[in-house]
Amino acid sequence: MDEQRRVAAFLAEHDLSTSPTYRVLDLVSEVGELAKEVETSTEYGADPEAVAVAEDELGDALFALLALAEESGHDAGAALETSLAKYERRVAESGDAGSGDA
Fold it and tell me: In sequence order, which ranges of the chain are alpha helices (DSSP H)?
């Protein structure tokens, strides 16, 4: 995935390598910022149609996820293909993409 390679190059260029543990914590933090934007823009869900997510915040979460993939030795593109195949299998078997665990 080209995006993962770009993130990897950025991490290397700026000496930002760290353990996957810290990458997960960063990812959770960035996703939390997205959740806060949704919470604020929808008045805590009262107006779901008013949802607003800033592109830069979405980009921060994507960067954090791709950095995690890189630091943990996973190819993000391959991981996405595996995930899509799993969802396709679920839809074919049950008509629903959910795991059924809920």
Answer: 2-13, 20-41, 55-71, 76-94
